[in-house]
Give the backbone structure.
Amino acid sequence: MDLTLHIDTSSFPKTQKVKKSMSEEEQTKVKEQNELVKKQKEKMADDISLKFSQFKRDFMSAPIRRAIKGLASGDPSLNHTCQINYRPDEKFWVIANKGDVSVSFGMQFDNATDKALARIFLLEFSGDIKRYCKNPCSVVYYDQKFPESVLEKFPACKDLKYSNGVISFSLQPSHLQPNYE
């Protein structure tokens, strides 16, 4: 998907030109005001750049947040299933059921070293979470096959191939409790 965002900068404060016809005192005053305007513009640009940097994160994670909100509240209208194509060769799937939310990520690496390191990390991660976390969410690494829950909802996925398989995280309502351990 492609998206174009537009920033209207017409509301940004404007600097004044220092004219030769101005007295030295007026020129100094305009220069000081221009420095303040410059700092205001920098602050506004920083605020906008922060919002833009968070936009993709917020936009792409909205289906996950919605599903988790539905799980926490028990609201069935928020239980939805979707596939997100977040890179040309990678997707993730959000599958929300009444009793859990599962998020599965297809992992694609082109570089041989990256593939090897990712495989080691994914194998260790899915195993270590049970050792080091009390009551962790379910983490399953599917090295060769696709998760059945994804194939059930998205049958066309059976033809997809990922260099490093798929990793799935499943949350239960108990994982969303404030005093969860």
